[in-house]
Amino acid sequence: MKKEKIEFELTIFDGFDELSDDSKSLMQQAVEARRNAYAPYSKFQVGAAVLLENDEVIIGNNQENASYPSGLCAERVAIFYAGAKYPGVAIKSVAITATSKNYQVQTPAAPCGNCRQAMSEYEVKQKSPIKVLLMGESGPVYECNSISDILPLGFDSSYL
Length: 160
Ligand code: THU
Description:
Layout: E1 10-13, H1 21-35, E2 44-52, E3 57-61, H2 74-85, E4 91-100, H3 113-126, E5 131-135, E6 141-144, H4 147-150
Parallel strand pairs: 4-5
Antiparallel strand pairs: 1-6, 2-3, 2-4, 5-6
Bound molecules: tetrahydrodeoxyuridine (THU).
Residues 39, 42, 44, 46, 62, 64, 71, 73-75, 111-112, 115 line the site of tetrahydrodeoxyuridine.
């Protein structure tokens, strides 16, 4: 028997102002997308902006439904639309931000497990890492180097 430790590197910026100009621009587009989220039930609004290799940016926001499971997270709205509009174009990075009508979101909003799995599919397919930027409405910004970092031991097509 042996034990292994799985670690990943997380870059923590003190706030939005510390980001590079490119990251600021992508995060700003996620913030704008967040404003159009349809989240009447959870009151938790999420915006995502996906930067592609061809420099196009595709945005998404969460779309809820009276039949709760029929809704979809911001990340999957964005990444599926990116796949639909630009099939085969690699994804460089994704910025995700969340706000709530119930409290001030001061910690970065981490993507749910389903969204990590969905984003992992594209990372595995394109064979290059997708950078992830995470932010609340204020407070620190997290930068992760890849989806596989935040989905260790992930399931992919190699098992099929
Ligand atoms: N949500 C996202 O859009 N992304 C996530 O990764 C976590 C959760 C949305 C889904 C739902 O509309 C609301 O946030 C509360 O769960």
